Amino acid sequence: MGAQVKEQDMTPLLQVNGLTKMYGPRIGCKDVSFDLYPGEVMGIVGESGSGKSTLLNAMAGHHAPDRGEVVFDTRADGPVDTLKMSEPERRMLGRTDWAFVHQHARDGLRMSVSAGGNIGERLMAVGGRHYGEIREQAADWLGRVEISDTRIDDRPSAFSGGMQQRLQIARNLVTGPRLVFMDEPTGGLDVSVQARLLDLLRSLVREMGLSAIIVTHDLAVVRLLADRLMVMKDGHVVESGLTDQVLDDPQHAYTQLLVSSVLQV
Amino acid sequence: MSDYNFAYLDEQTKRMIRRAILKGLAVPGYQVPFASREMPMPYGWGTGGVQVSAATLTPEDTLKVIDQGADDTTNAVSIRKFFERTAGVATTEETTKASVIQTRHRIPEAELTEDQILVYQVPIPEPLRFLEPRETETRKMHSLEEYGLMHVKLYEDISQHGDIATSYAYPVKVEDRYVMDPSPIPKFDNPKLEMAAIQLFGAGREQRIYAVPPYTRVVSLDFEDYPFEATKADHPCDLCGSEHSYLDEVILDDAGNRMFVCSDTDYCRTRRAEGHVGRLGESEGEAA
Fold first, then answer.
1. Which carries the bigger pLDDT value, residue B202 or residue A197?
2. What is the mean predicted confidence (pLDDT) over A98-117?
3. Which of A253, B48, B85, B268 lies most in the core, judged by the most C-beta atoms within 10 Å?
4. CB-based contact (8 Å) between B43 and chain A?
5. H helix or E strand, kind and range, residue A76
6. What is the pTM of this model?
7. Inter-chain CB proximity A125 and B155 less than 8 Å
């Protein structure tokens, strides 16, 4: 599917060139380059400490990389290196065209603010000043992530883990972003809840034509969601390609190990 | 008074505070850090306001101090005595005769003039504090004008109470730039923030000074479909009969009897002297 979109629209939404992040003498991630096209979902897999979260945070502007470029195709000015943007511009991007879904919903939600307020925050941050409209959109988004709108005034602390994660997704997608960064979106959820969340994510990504970068250690997640896959080890990308290709016919020794390590039930 | 430097603080300290005040006036609504001193009173009793007053007072000034609008409450009496002893300035209870007015939780009912200075005592100067606990983050939000979060608080009010239930310390935007906490004044007083007098805000424990120059635009935040409303108890004053002043509710007995009186004691006294009488005014006016 990603390949089809790629043929129609040849301007990549995101171009990452030689992105490097060091932690002192140690490597966070090194010389990562790839293009992400509109509507495409990229999976990044690897073991703990392989640098995948570092890479994601560096791309999303949460911490400054040492070298490289992250060029985003902005609506107004076309491709711009986000690392050279001024901070207000980058933060504006962070609450309009970009979204970031944290592994722990608590990091991405305001736990003392109601579900409706959590969803409405991004709307109000971009200038929404009509209570009725904000609330309507919040209720609509609760519905889309399969949370009953009777829970709109409940705080996230009264929600289950799966509901919190879905609320976090609603809160991020309400402003219609074009690129979503996800850090282990299904981490810490039990398998049946994971399945529902994946189902939901897949339909939202397809419906809205979102591009997404998903970091996970769970190969089943990328098999379901990702068009393309990058495998990371020790801060380097060791293999990349179409998801099915990489998972079914792994070339690099580490990828072979990773694929064969999955427990079969 | 000879044992103290004029108005208690030493001249270097006053100079430092005056610099913060001038910077505050130059950037309306911006919280200027200053090196708050230990004052001979506990934090929360107006140490910020006292330092700003001390730096503002001259020997020719006439000082008025109010606490919740009243001249005769503990906080007001002790601060007034403090400056009587350490500065030897004249003091008054009449709003119109004062040149410097230090206040806690109210703006006087009488309209202030260009030759007056209103000094507020501020407990927590950061309007975003209860929404965002990180100081580094709130500073960034101020500098980048990211104030969406302030509306989240108002949203929460409406969703829980049906309207904006914040009734004091109601957030305002100053000159279309900084969102400011007007100190815990009732929102009834918010429209009065656009006034002829200079307004200075001092937070002693939090070490911040901010200011609103005369005739500065001060807008209370709200939603298009839930506009700001300056509310008060729907009742006339029981002593002076005023329908336009902010009222305190006083429980009279355990049978459910109550009275409403102006919280601004000077305003109420002035009106009674002019012959206005409320429901309970004639019989109990003097006692109250």
1. B202
2. 92
3. B48
4. no
5. none
6. 0.85
7. no
Residue B95 reports pLDDT greater than 80: yes
**Catalytic-labelled residue, pool B24, B48, B49, B237:** B237
**Average pLDDT, stretch B119-124?**
96
Region B122-149: mean pLDDT is 92
Contact A131, B226 (CB under 8 A): yes
Chain A residues with CB within 8 Å of chain B CB: 87-88, 91, 110, 113-114, 116-117, 120-122, 124-126, 128-132, 134-135, 152-153
Phi-psi region of A146 (alpha: psi -120 to 50; beta: other; left: phi over 0): left
A117 and B149: CB-CB below 8 Å?
Answer: no
Q: For residue B113, what are the contacts with CB-CB under 8 A and spacing of at least 6? A: B196, B197
Alpha carbon A229 to its chain centroid, in Å, reads 14
3-state SS of A132-177?
A: HHHHHHHHHHHHHCCCCHHHCCCCHHHCCHHHHHHHHHHHHHCCCC
Rounded average pLDDT over B48-64:
97
Catalytic residue among B48, B262, B278, B281: B262
Q: Is B157 on the interface with A (CB under 8 A)?
A: no
Rounded to whole angstroms, how far apart are CA atoms A162 and A170?
12
